[in-house]
Structures are given as structure tokens and as C-alpha cells.
Amino acid sequence: MPNMSLKKNEMPTQPAQVRAHNFNEVATGYTKEMAMDEAARCLNCKNMPCVAGCPVNINIPKFISYVKDGEFEQAYKVISESSSLPAVCGRVCPQESQCECKCVRAIKGEPVGIGRLERFVADYHNENCKDAADMPKQNGHKVAVVGSGPAGLTCAGDLAKKGYKVTVFEALHLAGGVLVYGIPEFRLPKAIVQKEVETLKQLGVDVETNMVIGKTLTVDEIFEMGYEAVFIGSGAGLPRFMGIEGESLKGVYSANEFLTRSNLMKSYNPESQTPIMHAKKVAVVGGGNVAMDAARTALRLGAEKVYIVYRRSMEELPARKEEVEHAMEEGIEFNLLCNPTKITGYENPDDKR
Prior knowledge:
The protein is of the alpha/beta class and 353 residues long. The protein has helices spanning 16-19, 32-39, 49-53, 60-68, 72-82, 86-92, 114-128, 150-161, 178-181, 190-202, 219-224, 255-263, 289-300, 321-329; strands spanning 142-146, 165-169, 206-208, 229-232, 281-285, 305-310, 333-336. It has 14 helices and 7 strands.
């Protein structure tokens, strides 16, 4: 019998007062019982609108059906036919605007927790399956992928499954792109990313780090090395500033730099060689997921007060609803319909600090 509850099973999380002071993952994941109960909410629709909402067209009803029956490894096999990063996507993919917004259960009540189930299945596989992934039969063709972010890793995984010999060239010292330098540990543990990368390596993908294409190698040189195609997924790693006075003052960070120092270089660790400012009062300008990540990171670095400064209303805030709720629970204040025009720093005659 299907579970006709109008609400999803709640995702277990660390208490807000506890998680605001550590970098451990906020959501702790479904238990087996919770996953099977949530899977029973799926109506197994014949036309499968949720699949149309999935960018990689995972057969969602099929994998959820396996979860309902407790066949978690079979569920993982279904997901991995279409997705190379299930443990990552189950955590940070915006399901509420993709697969879940197409769910029939959302017409009356909440949609099936597709992302939460995907995460559960991937985590179950990673914890319980010790077998290496089977390397597909090689087809004799070589492809280079520039960048090891979500696009590059997905491309590499899809090509490897088709038998191509793939080499990923990454500029940084660790593969993962924005998954490692942009998204905080408390939202996406870096061990999860590296486990996904290891799975790709088992499929035959080579990963070369510290390779700045255009500097270390050119695209022409890559072709000369015998690669027949090059996929360029170099990302959008440069920050955008507001163009106002005071942006170059000490203590003004782009979110890119601030999060890279914390996430990739782990400056939140006392043993880290990378410095980062531990400010007591922090203002984060913006209302997207990156702004939420920066604000919540500042809080965990010891800030006593953190403000989100956003020029539009709460209804127009582009960040995921879940991230906004978590930020509010942790005590971050939202100053809406506000837009900075100048950063005065410590030379302000009205502030003698």
C-alpha cells in the first residue's frame, strides 16, 4: 500500500545551536526505515513527470521502487546508469525546482523526497559495497576533459561508461572544482566528493591535477597528444564585484576567495597554513546559495553576528528554501530591500574603531 501522507519524512539534522559551531554535515540522512517509508509515498506514475524534470533523466520511479522493497543496491545501479555523482546530487542538486516540482504528490501536499532518497541510496552503497566499479570495454578513443567540477566529472563519467579513455585536467591540487572550493563541508563533505572521484577512476578515468590548460598545456598540445576531442568545463570561478567605493579595503572578501580559503584550504582548522579573518560582525551581500554558504561559514568561524544584505524581498531570494531556513535557525539575520552604496571601513569619523 502506498504511503498517502501529505508530508515528506523529515530530514534528521544536527540541532541549530550545535551545528552553528562546527563544520560537520548539517543533515545526517535518512535511516533505512525512513527511506523505505518515504519511497512508499511514490505513486509510480506511468508517464513519470519527475524524470522529465531531472537533467540527467534518472529513472526515478524505478529506483524508488527498489528502495521501497529494501533493495538498495539495485536502486543504486538504476541511479548510476544515468548519474556519475549520486551522493553529490542527492545533497546539493536543487530538486525542488527540477524533479520534485514535477511530482504528482506535490499537487496536494509535499512531493516525494527524491533528493533525500538519492542521497540515502548513494550513502548506503558507499558504506556497504566494497567492490570496485567494473571498467567498461575500451573503444580505443581518447577524450580530454578540462576542469573537474560537476560538468567535467559528469562528462568524464558518461564517456568512460561508453568505453572512451578519458583524462581530466584540473588546475587546482584537488579534483572536484566548485564541489571542493565552493560548497562548505557542512553541506557537502569533501570525503563524499573524493569517493565519487575514486569511482570514476575505477571506470578508467585518469585525473591530472595542477594542470592549468593554456599555461601548463595548450588545447593544441592536448590534441597533439592523441586526444580526439576536448571538453572544456573550466567553470565560472571569477567573482563579480558591485563596483562601489571601498571594495578593496582590508576585510572585504569576494565569496569565491572566502569560501576557497575555508573549503579547499581548510583554514577553519587551527593547523591550516591558510589565513582567514575571524570577524565578530559580518555582512554578506547577496541572497543566493553562495551568500548562504558564506554567511554560515562566517558564523562557524566565530562571528557573533552575521547579516545577509539583499536588495529584494524574501519571496525573491534565489537561495534554496532549505538553506535559508537553516541559516535562520542558526541565528543569521536578514536585512532585505537593502543595497550597499559604499564601504567606509575604519576611517569613518562616526566610528572611532
